[in-house]
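Request: When convenient, would you put together a sequence paired with its structure tokens?
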Amino acid sequence: MNLINNGTIPKKDKQKSFANPFKYLVLIFFITGSCLPVVANDSLDLLKRWKELAAEGNAAAQNALGVRYYLGVGVPKSHKEAAKWYQLSAEQGDVDAQKNLGRLYDQGEGVAQDYQQAIKWYQFAVDQKNDEAQFYLGTIYQTGQGISQNFEKASTLYRLAAEQGYVPAQIKLGKMYWDGKGVQQNFVEAYKWLSLAKKHVQPFDADKRVYEAIEDLDVLTKQLTSSQKEEGQRLALEWEQKNKKE
């Protein structure tokens, strides 16, 4: 049952939920899908305000407070407390909280590991086009954790995230094209997605998956004919131009 579609969990306008909570906000950056403000004023005063907003039912503040507890930023690190605030926010339709709560159930952090709950909350976030949730749900379908293994669904979800520029999904999709799992084997498409991932990786994305993708791309490149490589480069460039950010 999709609670969002039947109206039980409303979708949230994130800009409205953050409407004027602080006048002294000077910078916002994103950590695990949530806004955490960095301010010149006393951080304790800011944390107090976050807690007040969260207690009042502000979904964005509840999610942000959950992130603080998850990371231990300004509060004692507690995945259990993070789960509590993610749950409250997710039930109001906050997409980041839905993804974050799904991740906790997926990993068994702060809650008992429960793939069905993970799938449920990931799906809510996927319905709101969250690229990380698309990737994580795709991973569940690919590995068959708590659900029947389905490479086609996995590739579909990876593609949704990859088209949004999510590097880990571009890597997964490229590898699926290389192996012919969930999609028809196509080395040109594999080259396209792996080369895009390599080119657009950010410093904070530089984990084991990225290094593996770079190595895979080097191996794949040696297997391609010059015309296949040129076609892969053309497709990658075409994708970049189509998705160029203004």
